[in-house]
Amino acid sequence: MESKGLQPFQNAEEILGSDQPLGTKLSRLMQIIQERIDHPCLVLVMKRTHLEGVYPLLDETSVEQMEKAQVLISSIKSIPAEPDIFHGAEAQSFFSSVGLLDHEKFPGPQVQDVVVTPLNSGTKIWGLFCMCGDHPFSDKEVSEFNLFCSQIANALYVEYLKLEEEGRKFEESRHALLFLDRKGIIVRANKAAADLLQYAAQEMDHTNLEIILPPKRVAEYQHYFRQVREEGHLSPLEIEFLAKDGTPVQLELSFTDTDSRYLQCTLIAPDRDEAFWKDYYETMIHTTEDMIYTLDLGGRFVFANRKATEVMGEDIVGKHFEEVVIPEFREMVKKKFESRKKGETSPVYKLQVFNKNREKMWLEISGTPFFQQGKVVGICGSARVITEKMQIEQQRTHLTLIANDILQRKNLREIMDTVAHAIRDHCGFERVIISLLDEHYEATNLAFAGLTEEEKIKAYESHLSPEQRKSIFSEEFKMGQSYYIPHDRVSWADMGVKSKLKPEQMKDWHPDDFLFIPLYREQKKVIGLVSVDDPVDGKVPAAENLAPVELFATQAAIAIENARLYEEINRHAELLESRVAERTRKREALLETSYRLREVTSWDKGMKIILEGITKGLGFRNAELFLINEARKVLENIAVIGDEKRKDIPLDDQGFVSSQCVDKKKPINIQGASRDERVKKQIEPVLENFAWVPIMTQDEVVGAISVYNKTSGEPITDDELDDLLLFANQAAHFVESTRFLITPAIEKTLDSRMKYNLNPGESYLIKDSRPTRAFDIFMDAVTHGIQGFSICRIHPKKVKGKYGLKKTPILWLSTIGTEDSIDPKDLAKINHMLNKFLKKAADSIILLEGVEYLIIQNSFEKVIKALHSLNDYITIHNSRLLIPVNPRTLDERELSILEKEFRVM
After folding, report:
1. Most buried among 130, 518, 646, 863, by the most CB within 10 A?
2. What are the b/e assignments for 150-172, b being 16+ CB within 10 Å?
């Protein structure tokens, strides 16, 4: 698979860094992976992880979103600890062992190759991700798949940190808090709420709040709760509750939206005096884990809560905000401050500041003007430390870009040097040594980062023996996917290059400690070791903190294997050169087709350009392009190269390979039709070798391309089929980018009665020398609440000006190619566009004026065929169709056919 650049990985980073729900993020990421890597199926198996019953990482809505992207949410027996690849029967055995084989959504026995990667961040295991295919995967596909897996694991870890913090705040809050779902069921109660009503917290879970109200107050509460759901925040409601022992408890009830799934409910005893409330709110401000502060109009801190002084220093009060803001953010903060002085509010934003130790940290800031007697007298704000979150996001971005760069490199020395320096620059270690090992664990190549020339010589001279290297892989030393060896656990602690950390820089890391990250190839075979030393923070790393360096190790191993493979490929340079030349020719044809398509919007012309590109670039003598006609349920022949057009093909007849291709949304290559059970029917010419590929926009099949060599009878190769898919993608993009998006709209509705009574589901033929009466009927409908759409020979500006239309969409039948015109030869596009309009419209009418012009540009047979389809659409969608014609422009036979097909008005 050839590289397609960094864009998919960057798109994935943008999605994972957004504020969308986790399920939406993963669903969109699945689509990116499906576009990036050619495979039949992705399977994401997730544990349904909850934080003590509140805030599931994946709720029912998320599950529904993800299942649309072919993602499986399931309980499984076990999750493997290491990535692996299974082939043939091994794949089925694996899925059986983890409890997936019998799942109704699993792809089934046709799977021949499976890449399995556990999703974990340190000790946290979220599930596993499988890529299933009916053919072996390349190393490039596997490496890119693993890269996406790392992105998913990091996203889950960030989400987990957020939810863990929210859960902790909820539980430790001094306020009596409940979380309710949208049906009013208590999802979780904190200890303060349970104590207030004399329950244990778990006793209140999964209980409807109505149950702990006196029966006489239930209706009042139901009305209030319904208003909360429909209108949002309301004033608090004082209502009587029943404690566990039946004692009435008068409480004040208020709701806050937490997200689309939950409502936060606060219970307060209302009979407290002013001193209590002052103490209550002061306590709340000083005990919250957010930093709360107040600025005067000069920009100086006049108040800071406990958390703010703990982070920013006891001397924060009296300082100007510019003293703590990092210089590059000061201008932005000034603008925010000035706007708030004017009484304006702004969204939450992020910036960097200096903390009390003059260390840089990231904050998420929210502020609002503070008013007294209608004037702004200060700014109230809150801040949350998000340094860890930003570091993870930035690190993930760096890791993705660097990992992709590693995969693009072909030189072994460059790969090792790039990996070594990337680990030093982005993973928190000052020194890195990478050693490649042969099958006997002897070092064959070394790469360094952070070592002097003298230290490099020392590394060559003082190194571990093969037996010592083998002893590294003991379970007692394992930490995540790495191996940490304390200095007092082995006899060879004095080997290697001595640490340069000073004693005061070390916390629990010892200068003679070892940390190794293995480089694996297939079947867990060790091909090298990454040795890191001198951690920047002076600490022994936790397993979850080793994920970045382990990611680099994974990418390095893949890239090293790729480099070795590349060297082998170079030995076959002559063969490769010919293939490259052939590929270049195909790419040039693809590029030329792309440029030519930019000049046209007509489907008739565009499809012919695509077929010309196929025959020129791929060498086929015959090619045909079909689009789906939904009304007639057929594949309609739109363009052909080589022979006359073949007949339309019924979609519901699976005896045709074309119908199977559309139904399965997969290419089908037939080599020997007389022996292939899939071929039950053929339309002339009967062929022995041919192929069909679907034309798909997103997940919708809009047509198919057929290719064959009628004269030579040569079969189509799998490589040619892959190249043909690129042209099918061009066709799909062309259809997507050139079809009109027509939005039904209602004109200003008149109070008068309609002059014309049109039956829904009817098509009317209006015989007149001029279309005046047809426009009068059309205007009568659209000004009485019916959504209209017109395609006509009169320019839309003239029609709208003459009849005073404001909202009704109108297109011009013309070959000019302007923005609001449609080519009269584009019958398939006209039919497609009218069908899309009818699907969107609730009550509609269509005026098709210019049938005579369509007949001139095409033929009567083609036009009447298109009108038959349109008539079917009108019937299906219960719409109305007006077709004005001048009888003198048609011969008797043509007019008679129209009169039989449509109701004469």
Report:
1. 130
2. bbbbbbbbbbbeebeeebeebbe
**Report field, pTM of the whole predicted structure over 0.70:** no
CATH of the domain at 583: 3.30.450.40
Average pLDDT (15-33) is 77
**Domain check: are 448 and 382 in the same one?**
no
SS (H, E, C) 47-115: CCCCECCECCCCCHHHHHHHHCCCCCCCCCCCCCCCCEEEECHHHHHHHHHHCCCCCCCCCCCCCCEEE
pLDDT digits (tens, 9 = 90+) for 619-634: 888 899 999 988 888 9
pLDDT at 710: 81
Q: How many residues does the chain have?
A: 905
Q: In what order do the strands lie in the sheet with 176-181?
A: 186-189, 176-181, 262-268, 248-257, 237-242
Burial tier of 445 (Cβ tally within 10 Å: 0-12, 13-18, 19+):
middle
What is the DSSP secondary structure assignment for residue 749, as one 8-state letter? P
Q: What is the pLDDT of residue 1?
A: 38
**Structural tokens at position 841:** 């419209």
Residue 35 has pLDDT above 50, yes or no: yes
Digit-coded pLDDT (tens) for 397-432: 776 777 677 767 778 888 888 888 888 888 888 899
Domain co-membership, 17 together with 93: yes
427 domain residue, yes or no:
yes
- Alpha helix locations (H) across 127-214? 139-172, 191-196, 201-204
Least confident of 293-302, 410-419, 499-508, 579-588: 579-588
- Is beta strand 649-650 parallel, antiparallel or unpaired with respect to 514-520? unpaired
- Tokens standing for residue 273: 């005096």
- DSSP annotation string for 383-411: EEE-HHHHHHHHHHHHHHHHHHHHHH---
CA-to-CA distance for 719 and 729, rounded, in angstroms?
A: 16
- Among the ranges 8-12, 106-110, 829-833, which has the highest mean pLDDT value? 829-833
Q: Is residue 743 part of a domain?
A: no
The stretch 767-782 carries a mean pLDDT of 92
For the stretch 818-866, pLDDT in tens is: 878 899 998 988 988 898 899 999 899 999 999 999 999 999 998 998 8
Domain final residue pick, 219, 244, 271: 271
Report the 10 Å Cβ neighbour count for 879.
25
The parent domain of residue 258 ranges over: 173-271
Spatial distance between the Cα atoms of 33 and 156, rounded to a whole number of angstroms: 17
> Which of 141, 164, 187 delimits the end of a domain?
164
Q: Which of 421, 460, 787, 726 is nearest to 588 (CA)?
A: 726
Q: What is the CATH number of the domain that holds 828?
A: 3.40.50.300
Q: Specify the pLDDT at position 4.
A: 53
Does residue 103 carry a pLDDT above 80? no
Are 773 and 789 members of one domain? Answer: yes
Largest CA distance in the chain: 106
Quick one: what percent of the chain has pLDDT higher than 90? 24
Q: What's the mean pLDDT in 573-591?
A: 72
> Does 30 share its domain with 118?
yes
Beginning with the edge strand found earlier in the chain, give each strand of the sheet holding 526-535 in spatial order: 443-449, 429-437, 526-535, 514-520, 482-485, 478-479
Judge if 423 and 451 occupy the same domain: yes
What average pLDDT does range 658-673 have in this prediction? 92
Tokens of 463: 């190194």
Residue 404 in domain: no
Residue 177 belongs to some domain of the structure = yes
Whether 734 and 598 map to the same domain: the answer is yes
DSSP secondary structure of 501-522: --GGG-SS--TT-EEEEEEE-G
- Statement to judge: residues 360 and 419 lie in one domain: no
The crossing angle, in degrees rounded to 10, of helices 573-597 and 603-618 is 170
Q: Which of 501, 519, 512 is nearest to 434 (CA)?
A: 519
Closest CA to 59 of 26, 31, 33: 26
Q: How many domains does the chain have?
A: 6
Q: Are residues 641 and 732 in the same domain?
A: yes
Q: What is the CATH number of the domain that holds 318?
A: 3.30.450.20
